[in-house]
Amino acid sequence: MLVALAGVWLSWHRATAAIHGATQREAATLAEMIAGNFNLATPGKTAREAHRAVREAVHSDSLLLRDVDGLRVLGPDGKVLWSRRVEDEGGLPSPASAGSLHGARIVRQLGGMECAACHADHAMNLGTLTLSIDAPTLRRQASGVFQISLFSLAALGAVLALATALSLHFMLTRPLRRLAGMMRRAEEGDFLVRAPVSGDDELSQLSVAFNRMLERLTSMKAAEIDTHRDLELAHEQLSLKKALEETNDQLQTRLNALSLLFDVAKSLNATLEPQELFNRVSALITERMKIPRFSIMMVAPNGQLEVAISVPRGTEGLTFEIGEGACGYAAGTVKAVYIPDTSQSEIFVARGTRPRGGALLSIPMIHKERLLGVLNFERAEIASFDAGEIELFTAVTDQVAMAVQNAKLHHETVELSITDALTGLPNRRHLFARLELEVARAQRFGTGLSMLMVDIDHFKKLNDNAGHRAGDKTLREVSERMRVLIRKVDTLGRYGGEEFALVLPQVSKAEALEVAEKLRQAVAENEFTHGPSQPGAKVTISVGVATLPEDADSLERLVDCADSALYASKRGGRNLVSGYSPGMEDHPGRERGLSPLKRAKTGEHPLTKQA
Predict the structure, then answer these.
(1) What DSSP line would sit under 284-329, residue for residue?
(2) Is the predicted pLDDT of residue 195 greater than 70, yes or no?
(3) What's the CATH number where 546 sits?
(4) Catalytic residue positions?
């Protein structure tokens, strides 16, 4: 269409130029013809007549001059000297009468021979002949042709536009719209749609490619669904596995806790010695439960908390008041105290210093609502104890409390079995066990061994006069007075009733006599208070001394000799020390037919005889 329009414009431009040239030539010819008419009309006529004749001649030739407009003769002053219209002569040409210049316009000088007959004075320069030709027939015809061409071209353009629109609608727009609808359905997730394919044009190829893409997407979606299903199954299996692992971890933790409790109970039941018990507990806690710092505190007789054992070592013997520090607070409240970060807790500001950071757990040992002590568990990491560990350590503390109580009961039972309840001295059974041990040692190494038998003088009279409570008090005071004067290796025990026995390892007879005399004097010089009615009463003792191997060669013989020497002191007047000498056993004073050793083994008390 653009090329056709360009061709029509070029043809129109060339036709217009040709018509303009022809019109110019025609206008020049007409101007010569009109000038010739003036030459033919002037002979023998006046100017007016000549002008009229030319006008009539121009009108008579209307076929040639039908397209001529603005035909006039202008004078030198610009006024109209002659015109086809009479009314224009003598005046100035109006702009409207000048005619349009769409055609040809000829301007020719008049004068000379054409005007000499009528205008002799202006023969040389009379005026100007102007002639205009507007819209000649040839131009109108060419314009009509070109208008028809433009109309036809416009009609052809409209037909082509309509055909193009219809072709685009049926061949491009509607298939593209249908394909776009398929794409929207596919975008919404319907991968089973397929675009129709009719032909092998580009749209058909695009539909084929789209269908192939949907097939690939369908396969990928199916694979994605399978993969998603597999992932869900794998995720479920992983969740089950994770839950199983967590359950196994919990079971393992519980098993470790039960194993630790079993080991603690086993270790604690294997010993009744408190120190051995503490060592076993410390080893189990620090090794099995990864507790780098651990301590056991026991309630001392004065009511304070005293460190019995610690890991690492070095704080044994350190004491805390009830309510002081975390351990004292746990003991005072009888509840476990957990400090996640000891450096940020005000409970530690007890002695003007702030401890190192870390986590601390203090659990009181309680047995039948009685406070026995406190167990302290410490780690360097902040908040490193969880609820399960706190529960486990509480159970361990209960086990330790029970074991400590059992050890205490055992110790008390042992003490009761080997200790005289009244005086606190070893009883007769423990005394003879120790004596048997010392005799065996003396016989093996060839060393000396001395034994003292001590009896309180007139003790029966004291009981009768002052009462048994005064007698018991006298026994305790006499035993305490003698105990402070002997060595740690010596054994002072209650033999029975008001009698005491003293075993002196590696002591000769002369040294034993000195010890006996020292004891006699210490008791005699001491004032014993039997009660408000008898203040400042005096008590004396009688002592018998025998030595192995000088006086005897066996344990039984040694006891008999010491007993004989004791009764010799009583016969000598009491408040006396006597060493054994041969023949003392022949004198009266002993129970007939039963030696002191046999009486001790049968559990009978030796009789106190009055001298």
Answers:
(1) HHHHHS--SEEEEEEE-TTS-EEEEEEESSS-TT-EE-TTSHHHHH
(2) yes
(3) 3.30.70.270
(4) 498
